[in-house]
Amino acid sequence: MRTITRMDKVTTIPTRAMLERLNPYHPGKQAPDTVKLSSNENPLGPAPAAVVAYRDTANSLHRYPDGAAHALSMALAEYHGVSPEQIIVGNGSDELMTLIAAAYVNPGETVVTAAETFSQYRFATTLYDGVVKEYPVLDGRYDLESMSRAFNAGSPRPKVVFLCNPNNPTGTFRTHDDIHTFLKQVPADTLVVLDEAYAEYAYSPEFPRFRELMTIFPNVIVLRTFSKLYGLAGLRVGYGMGHPEVIQNLLCVKQPFNVGLAAQAAAVAALQDASFREISIELNTRGRLWYEQQLQELGLGYYPTQSNFLCIHVARPAVEAVSVLEQHGVSVRSLASFGLHEHIRVTIGKEEDNQKVMNGLRELGELPRTRT
Ligand SMILES: Cc1ncc(COP(=O)(O)O)c(C=O)c1O
Questions:
Q1: Which residues of the chain have pLDDT under 70?
Q2: What are the strands, taking DSSP E only, across the chain?
Q3: Which atom of ligand 1 is nearest to the CA of 167?
Q4: Does ligand 1 come within 6 angstroms of the Cβ of 162?
Q5: The CATH number of the domain covering residues in 48-273
Q6: 168 touches ligand 1 (CB under 6 Å)
Q7: What is the pLDDT of residue 154?
Q8: Which fold has domain 17-45+275-366?
Q9: Would you kindly state where each structural domain of the chain is located, as residue ranges?
C-alpha cells in the first residue's frame, strides 16, 4: 500500500492536529517460511475448547453479540473472585486503553508511563490530546521511584498512570510491595492502569495480588487479555477489572457491540480449558529455563523474564540479529522502535524453534561486528 504524503494530498479537509503526533503501531513481523516468534502469541495455537465453541457459533452469526458480554463477564467474575460489575470486556485490551483515555483524559492532561514499554499507552493518550510523560526503565524495570515524583507539587498532576507488569518488551516485573508502595503515593483522583497481559506466566510469589490492590485502591484498574496464554489473539478479547464506578465510566464510552459473538463464546470456553492453560505454562517454563542456561553459556545478556518472551541484548544492531535469525527460520522482533537498538524480543516457542533461535544467536556471535 502506498503511503499518502503531504505532497499528493487531494483533500483540503484539515485533520485533528494530533494525527501528526500519532505514531503507527509496529506489529511483530513474519518473514516468509519462518516461524513467528515476534508477537508473543501462544506457540501451541488456540485453546482447543475455544475452537469448538467458536465453530458452534457459526449458525448464529446473523445475530448481534451481547453488548454487555454477560456470559463472559460472569465467567470471568467467578474465575477471578470479583463481581461482574467490576468487569468490562474489550475488543482486545488495546481497546480498553483507548476507552480509558476517552473517559478520563482531557486535552492537555498528563499521562505517565515508562519510555520502553507497550506503545498503545502513548497511542491512546495522544488520540485524546493528552500529554505523555515517560520515565526510562532502570535495569529493564519500571522506575516507580522516579515516577512517583511526578506527583510532587509544582508539576501538573498526572491523570492516568499506565504500568505494564510484566513489562513488554523487557519481561521484568515490579513486586506486590513495590506497586503497593507506589499506589500509596498516588492521589485518589489519578487512575492507575495495571496492564497484566502476561500475568498468567509470572511465577514469582511476589507478583502483585491484584484483588488485594483493587480492594485498597479504588483508583486501580487491571487489564488482562485472551491473546497470550489462551491463544486467541486473532479474535480480540481483553478485559478490565476495577471499581464498578470506573467500569461504568468505561462502559459509557464503548461501542455497543464491541466484542463479536464468536469471540465471546470462544473466550468463555478458553477460560474453562484448564488443561490447555497448564500445558501452555509448562512449555513456557521449560523453554525459559532452557534459554536462560543457553544464553548464559553463550555470554549474552538478557533480562530475567516473568512472561512468555525474552529481551536479549545482542550487542550489535538489532536488525542484524533479526536478519540472521530469519535465515535460521525464525522471525523475532527488533526492539529499535522501543528505543532498545541492540535488543531483540523473542517469544518462547516450541523446543525445535527455540533451538533455531539459539543456533542463529551462536552464528551471530561469530560474525564480525559492524560499527554502530
Ligand atoms: C503489554 C501488552 N498489553 C496489551 C497487549 C494487547 O493485548 P490485546 O491483544 O488484548 O489487545 C499486548 C500485546 O502484545 C501487550 O504486550
A1: 1-8, 369-372
A2: 35-36, 87-90, 110-114, 131-135, 160-164, 191-195, 220-225, 238-242, 301-302, 309-313, 330-331, 333-334, 343-347
A3: 1
A4: no
A5: 3.40.640.10
A6: yes
A7: 72
A8: Aspartate Aminotransferase, domain 1 (3.90.1150)
A9: 17-45+275-366, 48-273
